[in-house]
Amino acid sequence: MLIDAGFPRPQTQIPVLGPDGYPRYFLDMGWEELKLAVEYEGVQHADQLGYDIVRADYITRAGWTHVRVAAGHRRPAIIARVEREWDRLWRPELGITPRRTPLAGPPLELGC
User: Fold this and answer.
1) Secondary structure element (H or E) that encloses residue 106, with its range
2) Where is the DUF559 domain (predicted)?
């Protein structure tokens, strides 16, 4: 979905390091150069909520912008949220490919 929307391919399972230099948490996907993470939130049990709050706080304090999405979120809304953060964070000197404008509509089928 994000690639189809014109974003470069995100990295997956990005480590967020602790003070000791070892991975403390792993992000579902994102762009390390921008410190922009996109994570899918599944169904939670109440006892996991506390862990998730601590984890999200740690990720934010580590300098990451954290876009969290769930199954009920619509594709255009997800893309708009990621796009808004991308546009806020992206700078040429970061060395990451700028976002391209996706093609309008489905690809053309050429009949022969």
Assistant:
1) none
2) 24-69
